[in-house]
Design brief:
By secondary structure, the protein is of the alpha/beta class. It has two domains: 8-298, Carbon-nitrogen hydrolase (Nitrilase/N-carbamoyl-D-aminoacid amidohydrolase); 323-641, Rossmann fold (3-Layer(aba) Sandwich). Helix content is 40%, strand content 18%. It contains 21 helices and 20 strands. It has a seven-stranded mixed beta sheet with strand order 13-12-11-10-9-8-15. Strands 5-4-3-2-1-14 form a six-stranded mixed beta sheet. Helix 11 (418-428) crosses helix 12 (437-457), helix 14 runs antiparallel to helix 15 and helix 17 crosses helix 18 (566-576). The radius of gyration is 31 Å and the shape is elongated.
């Protein structure tokens, strides 16, 4: 069963009775059985969960240690038919030492034991009173439950088509956590068994620490900490279950809950591998690390049922939600404005020349020019907006273009291109009634020629308006609107362009400009190269021809950002857009996306300069270097076979 690289993991927070191993093991066993039924493949429990973390000097009692081992033996017997991998915390005796350890079990067998390295011995912690650090242990095996099993901090476990490692609580708080070495050795998921207590402000710091460590290791991170039932003599535990993936929180528990909890999510190990391959610094870091050679332990096959995802995927991955969207808009404009300002100052341009169509892209480019001139203290007269009505221009876009330029106070020129195009059709012998690609592209090239020549007249430069989505699909006329002197929108996807324009409309412009901007946002996307209908409405709608931009932006994100194959992109899109498009519709436009993306690379190979804004850029000098004659056969064949 194909699971597209997802591994279902869980962090358990069981009820605990301090020093009551039998009661604790009953709780653990129940959670393991329920988790197996839910299709969970790997589950972690809190630090010292078999005995309870807060046993204090009872850890020196032989009876407690024997009870812990006996109850573990009973658990092994009761779960010998279960394929789920469980990671438990308990004290483990090795000769004259006592270790605070994680024990990994599956199908009634102990796969390995990982001891804690860094034992906190400050403030409320006294672990060195009872335990020995893994750094002092030379043994590589231990007898536990009648079997000799691997022991060490360098154990890597291979299961579910992934590799995982383990660290315990304080290990993560160290300057260089053990998980860093484990990740460099190949661990894609880190499990942390913890007993971190609560105090004011600590939770936010803890979450930041886990987020940063998962991001630094480019790994999944599953964190399970003690909760209700631990002694509250001096400290309180909130029961933190947290699952992160490369810095992003996937799932979390309810803090201070009196109920046992199992926090579930799916970690995308394919995505992590893609990130690691792309980030060559990750591999290079190994040469600067004196890493202890790892021992790899092969687990048995875990259930192969199809994973039902509990995590969700945003339909618009380029567009954050809530307050984050406002911050994103502000940051994007700052990047665009800084890029354009530097180019204006470097070229000593007196003007910027921009074609204003009344559409989204040219509107965004105009707003960037406006903010740039204002920040540089330049007169808006130096922004020369040129509207160039043609055969398909509608009254709505024409009037919006003029209204916007007037309300924003820039210089305006209007040049009708119909006569020039008619003359051109006569020159090349083209029938004006044949509305083919020649008919369309001649208009785009005529407009570009006008802009370039006006820039020469005014000692200025032409500002490109094309966005990332159009460039990915090749939805631009080669050496027409494809070309400019600075492509200010070149790394902003269409779905985000709309929000940027709307954000400006709602933040910081006059009422007249705001009304025009909002109408532009609501106008159908069109190049307006084909005549309007009898009612003057747009007949040539881009999304009817190439497909919905929201789908293409989704495809683009997962194809370029993570290198996902079409099968996985279709799977994720079917989840993200399940309320909007059926699978066949998504598959149709996915085929269109890959066909056009490969066929139109030649346009991207000679793009003008433009600032990188987000995580994806298709500049041939930046993120994307692809031969123009690369074959799309493998990608299209996979789509056809889905």
């Amino acid at each position: 069963m194909v699971n597209h690289g997802f591994v279902k993991v869980a962090a358990a927070v069981p009820h605990v009775k301090v020093a009551d191993c039998k009661e604790n093991m009953q709780q653990i066993e129940k959670i393991i059985i329920e988790s197996e039924e839910k299709g969970i493949q790997m589950i972690a429990f809190p630090e010292l969960c078999i005995t309870g973390y807060t046993c204090g000097d009872l850890f020196a009692q032989q009876l407690l240690l024997e009870e812990a081992e006996m109850t573990l033996m009973q658990l092994l017997n009761n779960t010998r038919q279960l394929g789920i991998i469980s990671i438990l915390g308990m004290p483990v005796s090795v000769h004259s030492m006592l270790l605070n350890a994680a024990v990994v079990i599956q199908k009634g067998q102990i796969l390995g034991v990982v001891p804690k390295t860094y034992l906190p011995n400050y403030k409320e912690y006294y672990e060195q009173r009872w335990f020995t650090s893994a750094a002092s242990v030379t043994e590589t095996s231990v007898r536990l439950c009648g079997k000799v099993v691997p022991l060490g901090t360098n154990l890597l476990f291979e299961a579910c088509d992934t590799t995982f490692g383990i660290e315990i609580c304080e290990d993560m708080w160290a300057t260089i956590p053990p998980s860093s070495a484990l990740a460099l050795q190949g661990a894609e998921i880190i499990f942390n068994l913890s007993a971190s207590n609560e105090c004011i402000g600590k939770h936010a710091y803890r979450c930041a620490l886990i987020s940063q460590q998962s991001a630094r290791c480019i790994a999944g991170y599953v964190y399970s900490a003690c909760g209700y039932g631990e002694s509250t003599t001096d400290i309180v535990f909130a029961g933190n279950g947290l699952i992160y993936e490369n810095g992003s929180l996937l799932a979390s528990s309810r803090r201070f809950s009196f109920d046992e909890q199992t926090i579930i999510s799916e970690i995308d190990v394919e995505r992590l591998r893609s990130e690691r391959r792309m980030n060559t610094t990750f591999a290079a870091n190994r040469i600067n690390f004196n890493i202890k050679e790892s021992i790899r332990i092969q687990a048995e096959l875990v259930n192969t049922k199809k994973i039902e995802l509990t995590r969700s995927f945003a339909a618009h991955p380029f567009v954050p939600q809530g307050e984050a969207l406002r911050e994103r808009c502000e940051e994007i404009f700052s990047i665009q404005v800084t890029g354009l300002a530097q180019r204006i100052m470097h070229t000593a341009s007196k003007t910027v020349v921009i074609g204003i169509s009344g559409g989204l892209d040219s509107t965004l480019a105009l707003l960037v020019c406006l903010k740039t001139f204002d920040k540089l203290g330049l007169s808006r007269d130096g922004i020369l907006g040129v509207t160039m009505p043609g055969f398909g221009t509608t009254d709505r876009t024409y009037n919006n273009a003029l209204d916007l330029m007037r309300s924003l106070g820039i210089s305006i020129r209007e040049i009708d291109i119909k006569a020039a195009c008619i003359q051109h059709f006569t020159d090349i012998g083209h029938d004006i009634n044949v509305h083919d690609v020649t008919y369309e592209n001649s208009q785009a090239r005529e407009r570009t020629q006008i802009l370039m020549d006006i820039a020469n007249q005014t000692n200025g430069m032409v500002i490109g308006t094309g966005d990332l989505s159009e460039l990915a699909l090749g939805w631009a006329t080669y050496n027409g609107d494809h070309m400019s002197m600075y492509g200010i929108n070149s790394s902003i996807p269409k779905t985000l362009v709309k929000y940027l324009v709307k954000w400006v409309a709602e933040n910081g412009v006059d009422d007249a400009s705001s009304a025009t901007l909002l109408d532009i946002v609501d106008t159908p996307i069109s190049p307006e190269l084909i005549p309007a209908d009898e009612n003057g409405n747009i007949t040539q709608k881009t999304e009817d021809l190439v497909g919905p931009y929201e789908l293409h932006d989704f495809f683009l994100y997962y194809f370029m950002r993570f290198g996902f194959r079409p099968a996985k992109i279709l799977y994720l899109a079917s989840l993200a857009f399940k309320e909007m498009y059926d699978r066949d519709t998504i598959k149709k436009w996915l085929h269109t996306f890959f066909r056009r993306f490969f066929a139109q690379q030649f346009k991207r190979s000679c793009l003008p300069d433009g600032p990188k804004v987000g995580s994806i850029s298709i500049s041939p000098r930046g993120d994307w270097r692809m031969p123009s004659d690369a074959s799309s056969a493998a990608w299209l064949q996979e789509i056809e076979e889905l």
